Amino acid sequence: MENVQSTPALSGIEKLISNGVNHLEVQHKYILPLHERPNMSQVSCFEIIPVVDLKGLDGPDRSTVIQQIRCACEQDGFFQIVNHGVPETVMKNMIDVAKEFFEMPVEDRACYYSEDPKQRTRVSTSFNVNKDEVFNWRDYLKHPCQPLEEVISSWPEKPAAYREIAGKYAAELNALCLKLLAAISEALGFDSDYLNKLFGKNTQFMVINYYPRCPNPDLTLGVAGHSDPGGLTVLMQGDVSGLQVLKEDGKWVAVEPIPNAFVVNLGDQLQVVSNGRFRSVLHRAVTNSSTERISIPTFYPPSKDSFISPSPSIIDDQHPVLYRRYKYEEFFKVFWNQTLQINKTVLDHFKIEYPEKDH
To answer: For residue 79, which phi and psi values (nearest 5 degrees)?
Structure first.
């Protein structure tokens, strides 16, 4: 039995970019074709995504904050939030224990290595190593967060404080996600519990992305351009820049970190439910040569059994339905079987094609 168990661990050690060898040079499997490279000289550092202060969300200024969220969802699909209620110490402790996890001996991490997306808790590399033609410059730890008391036993036992610290963080992020879902529901003109009911059973999960220092950041990407398949993503990106968002004019914009802020972005399901009114946009992560980077996105998707479609209340003659009805499980399968490409493709599978009208 010992030999059987050791095989995937050894395989994982060899594949992880943070194994002490792989990241010392940009190997061929990480080098992108010329037209897919980050081209950092063309990235804007002067445009910004909206910043929404949530302080007034639970008071008389709620309608003003909802309007700000509505504008951000319609125009950008991304916004940063401050005064969100998550204690600074909880955020700092989570970043610190995440760094500690990836600083452990690689053998202690590789025992969690898996390429099976159905594995509840796993360490892996790139995006989908079974599909990627060019690898992404990242390793990651992924695990479920809800129901917390049922899933926490599957989390890493090392570092010793991981479960306690990540458990507190996951609980805080669950409350924040529910608060944001209620606000976004109202921004769409629905009751505050609309999206939470639509999404069904809470399947919140967390990913810790680890991007080692890269000898030549111009050749590769931490994560290639993609839109998130789920409902809502809340990202803690620490103090190292790396996240970039694609604007409608085709320019990439760097999302510079704001101390103690979260970055919020809408997933594909909110674009469908809003019938295209709210935007799920392409984003990517770049690398750098000076320091490693940790980012921690929390994902709040619908349950696999939830049926998703544009809300009937926002469909009319001027706004015909754009997407067919489907079960979220079907959507996620299409997402996971893709390779990350420059152009978004998953939503296209669910679009309704109308014949062109004669003029």
So the answer is: -160, 155
Cβ count near 335 (within 10 Å): 20
> Residue 10: is its pLDDT beyond 60?
no
Note the pTM of the prediction, 2 decimals: 0.93
DSSP class per residue in 177-242: HHHHHHHHHHHTTS-TTHHHHHH-S---EEEEEEE---S-TTS--SEEEE--SSSEEEEE-TTS--
Count Cα atoms within 13 angstroms, Cβ side, for 216.
Answer: 11
- Sole residue written with tokens 């490279």: 37
Chain position carrying tokens 């009114």: 277
For residue range 52-90, what is the model confidence (pLDDT) as tens digits? 999 999 999 999 999 999 999 999 999 999 999 999 999
Residue 154 amino acid letter: S
Nearest alpha carbon to residue 190 among 321, 64, 301, 70: 70
- Angle between helical axes of 162-187 and 88-103 (0-180°, round to 10): 130
Residue 344 has pLDDT above 60, yes or no: no
DSSP 26: -
HSE, side-chain direction, 13 A CA sphere, residue 325: 6
Instruction: Report yes or no: 232 and 280 within 8 Å, Cβ to Cβ.
Output: no
Rg value, the chain, Cα = 20
d(CA 257, CA 234): 13
What gap in Å lies between CA 42 and CA 33, rounded to an integer? Answer: 17
pLDDT attached to residue 294? 97
Confidence class for position 127, pLDDT limits 50, 70, 90:
confident
Average pLDDT over residues 282-294: 96
Contact by Cβ (8 Å): 186, 66: yes
Average pLDDT of every residue of the chain: 91
Full DSSP string of 246-309: E-TTS-EEE----TT-EEEEE-HHHHHHTTTSS----EEE---SS--EEEEEEEEPPPTT-EE-
The pLDDT tens digits for 224-242 are 999 999 999 999 998 999 9
